[in-house]
Amino acid sequence: MKSDHLSNIWRREIDKINDHLPRNYKTLESLLSSKNPYVITLDGDQIPFDRKELEFLAEIVPKKYHGSLQLPIVFIRRIEMGEGVYSISGGKIEKGVIMKLLGVTENPFSDDENNFPPYIYRHQVLEIRRKIRSLTTIGFATTKTNLKDSVFKDRIV
Fold first, then answer.
1. Would you give the distance in Å from CA 61 to the centre of its chain?
2. Which residue pairs from 31-38 have beta carbons closer than 8 angstroms and sit at least 24 positions apart in sequence?
């Protein structure tokens, strides 16, 4: 019983530090057509997207995926796995973009998602953020158990 109570407190604290994460996601296609591309955060602020970064992404992602790629891409800091371990929130297209930017694969959009590494590391996150900083953000998580009722419930990797 005490464990459940502590788990609930821990989950609420993690959710609080994740208030900067997007409330919803927008596709690359819709952001490119927007005069002022942004999404709203969980706490009601805006995450603005840099137009040059959107155009850069549009060049490396096949056009047929522009309507499916959800932004921003969230790197989830996996606290329970040790220092500097992250997972990529989202699906095959979001993971494929990251693999392409890291040079892990030439054609990630035709690769099987199961061929992608399950985690990436701090130096890789920094490399990606140097290229598309405004299109990415970092969230924090402890375990999938703790995430099942959190803001990531629909995007757990």
1. 16
2. 31/71, 32/58, 32/66
In Å, the largest CA–CA distance within the chain is 53
Calpha distance 36→16 (Å, rounded): 27
User: CA-to-CA distance for 18 and 10, rounded, in angstroms?
Assistant: 12
- Residue 87: what are its φ and ψ, rounded to 5°? -115, 165
Helices (H), 38-91: 51-60
The answer to whether residue 93 scores a pLDDT higher than 80 is yes
* pLDDT tens string 106-149: 788 876 666 788 899 999 999 999 999 999 999 988 764 444 55
Calpha distance 66→138 (Å, rounded): 22
- Distance, in Å, from the CA atom of 105 to the CA atom of 55, rounded to the nearest integer, reads 21
